[in-house]
Design goal:
Helices cover 24% and strands 47% of the residues. By secondary structure, it is an alpha+beta fold. It has two domains: 81 residues, F0F1 ATP synthase delta/epsilon subunit, N-terminal (ATP Synthase, domain 1), CATH 2.60.15; 40 residues, no CATH class. Strands 1, 2, 3, 4, 5, 6, 7 and 8 form an eight-stranded mixed sheet that branches. Helix 1 packs antiparallel against helix 2. It starts with 5 loop residues before the first strand and ends with a helix.
Amino acid sequence: MANATLRCVVVTPEKAVVDTPAEYVSLPLFDGQAGFLPRRAPLVGRMKPGSLIIRNQGKDETYFIDGGIVQMKGEVITLLTGRAILKGQIDTAAALKDLEVTPPATATASVLEEARASKARAKVMLRIARG
C-alpha cells in the first residue's frame, strides 16, 4: 500500500492544468472537505471554491479551485473546474481588490449574489496564498 497512487487530473475550460500521480488528494465539496486515497470507492460530487491539495512522494502542492465537479473512478480522480491556480501563482493584489468592490445600492439580486460570491472566492484565494 505504501507505493499505491492514484492519477489526479484537473481540467479547466482552457487546458488540463494537472495530470500527476498522487498518494492523497484533498478537495472542497459542498458538504465538507473530502480526502481521496488509492482504491477508494467511486464517487461523483460537486465542489465549492477552495483549496485542492495533491500529495505526491510526501510533498503537497496546493491550488485554488473555483468549484466544479469531481469524479473518482478506478484509480483516477478527475476535477472539472472553472479555474485552478497554483498557490504561488495566486494574484493577491487582484484578490484584495475584489474584496473592496461594493455593488451600487440599486443593484439587482443577481448582481449582489455575484458580488458576494466574488468576495468569498477572494477570501479563499488569500487564505490559500498566505497559508
